[in-house]
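Note to self: keep these together.
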Amino acid sequence: MILEHSCDTGPTDGPAAGNCDFEESSLCGYTSDAGLGDWKWISPNTDSSDGVPHPPVDHTYNTGYGHYMEASLVPSTTEGLVGRLKAPQFTQPEDLQQCATFWYIHNGGSNLDKLLVYANRSGDVDMPLGVISVLHAYTHSQNNTGYINTWLSASVPVPAGALPVQLIWEAWQDKREDHSSMLCDVTINEAGALGSCDFEKSTCGWQNVVDNAVGSGKPEWVRGAGEGGNSDAPSVDHDGSSLGMFLYVGSTMFGTGLALLESQMLIPEQHNNLCFHFWWFLEGSDAEDAIWIRLWKDDGHNSEIWRQTADTSSGAWQEGQVHIKADGVFEPGAYQIRIGGMRATELSTIAIDDFDMTQFSGSCDALPPDHVTPAPTDTPSLWECDFEDGHLCNMFGTGEATWVVLVSENIDHVNGERCISLLGSKGEEGRRRLPKLPPQDGPRCLNFWHFLNGADEGELSIIVTTNDIERKIWARSLPDPGWIFASVNVPIDDSSQIDLSGIKGDNSMASMLVDDMYIVQKSCEADAVKDCGFEESEICGYTSEPGLGNWTWVSPHDGHDSLAPHTPVDHTYNTEYGHYMEAALVPSQKDDLVGRLKSPEISQPVDVQQCATFWYVHNGATFLDKLLVYGVLNGDYGRPLWKEKASYIDTWLSASVPVPTGPPTVQLVWEAWQGKRNDHSTMAIDDVAITMQPCDAIGTCDFEAGTCGWQNVVTGDNRTDESDWVRGSGLTGIDLDNPDADHNGDVNATYLYVDTVFEGTGMALLESQMFQPEQHNNLCFHFWFFIQGEEEDNIWIELQKEDDKKHEVWNANGQSDKVGKWKEGQIHIKADNFFTPAPYQQNTTVQRN
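Structure:
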């Protein structure tokens, strides 16, 4: 039907006088008053070049060609009114309570950036009917939006009475250096309580969560009725009517997944203490089929308050009720209610109906009666994301590669089933920018788990951008032995952005996974004593004593003017922006102590053997350039626990020493000594960790919990390789490169195998910790090996001295076959038969043809 007037034409009085979608230049009679800025009529495609970050689509048409009213927040050194948007006056019937509903976007930067709604009755402007403000700092740039980055609805009651009424929207802003915006569309109807809905005519402001990262195959909440025979929906509503409307989880071509429904934004001053009553339907054969309710704060914090699963439901409509007291969960702030429907199988049915939201009046018993409401948790996190809801917690995506939520029962690092994975082609980068958070004094600790599974999987990094200058502050590119925990100090301030970045490597079968990200309200080493990565200036309470030089706190990026040849990256972050402790070897005509690095006093429990593991670089030139570790008891140094006299070590190596038992405390001391020399060089220490267990025998490893100091070779002349040794099992191997089980036939047990680029060949080198001739000269090395392939495929073992001299001590030549099976290997290692006594390593090399 086409009418003989425009869409916005309507009567001049009555409720419709306030209705407007702002699609015509007359603006339905709306006017504005200017302040620091003003309300303007905007179409995104037409007004895209004015320097203001306009939302890309309107709400009415959902395109760039629609229109809306926008209040532009402008750079200003003062706080103030941006502008007023005034509806035309209309008469409010005395016996009719009406409701003004509008859609808005709020990209403010502080709690002083706010949107208010007033009712003007014959010149009398009372208290605001509603206040929308962002209580946490969100700035807007081309690549990052604040929390409210989509159209949301809000409703306010229109005051009753016979006097004419005029609605007024006021936009206020704080001091700011950039541009941002607030926007709205308006409708006036009969009033309804916020959050209440019978779904007979609409969804009353409830809407599906939009998250492009989850993908287009994500299920959604769909409004429908039993009539029509939709297999995803119940046959009747909770009153038994086949015509009654409700919401149900509608499947897509993928059939399963999580559907997320969110409420309007709830303001703590108005919506803190509520009783939420509803009806729910859940039928399924899988315990993962579920309905849950969470409170979701504007900074990403969330807390579950109600849950039902298929194993506790009967496949019939049931009553639900939960008490919502937001300030018992969060610090006061704007929040939403989210309802999740998890459809684990294609045969499950999930639906909800008849929401009734009322102010708490003293009684709001949990329903069902046997339902136990989870206790709210007061986490110290500033932001957290476990990806279990199928979304990326407002992390903004850029780049050719894409971070997506991956669903697998066996891949999550704990008991969940979701993490994020990088999808893309060789060389493509994908980023996820963390949301802006309230500014903090000093760095805060970003924690997460990562799993780089396979050779040539690419590089995972954390990038901080401050005033348009990028810094890669943390990076990993070698295969992980399993899920690895990482902590990185990051700035939380108005001028910095934090990105999770992944670059795809050559191996299309490899995977890059991240899980359980969170930022806590302290720095990473705020309480560190036993474990220290030396990333903060307090260096965990370590002290030093000088000799010819001293131990100093070094970041390679800051030390370009030094004469010392700094190791180019630290071990903790694996970038030039990380830190470590360095002993600088200096020109001198005598042999002498360079300096001592002393740990704080470490408690030593009775009858518990502890192990100290650390990473080091030793770039000495002679056997007089040495690094020693002591365990000092009651001031007595005793004999050194460990000594290193190597000269070629140009990469980080690990070492482990037993912590002496006896007195209640012990102090670890690293001594650096140097011989006579005419040049500069260095020794370095990083990532000291003390565990409550004995040290493993050097070289011994079953690979069930890690690699025990064995590592892939990555740098140095004649030390590069073409592939990597990867820790895996028969169940977790990523391609056809790994055996189906370990040598005992256990498909769950882990081992090391050589992973190459798909259909690739190459050499992989695995190196041990450094062996000391005084301690590790006469050894028996027993192991199991597996070779399936061509006759030329081989494994061999070499001893490599500090000066790069090598000697082969074992070779599996001719042991390869087409079937492949585990075989025993054993070799007597007597290093002084091959070399003048000196530190050496054992290298295990595979050639895959």
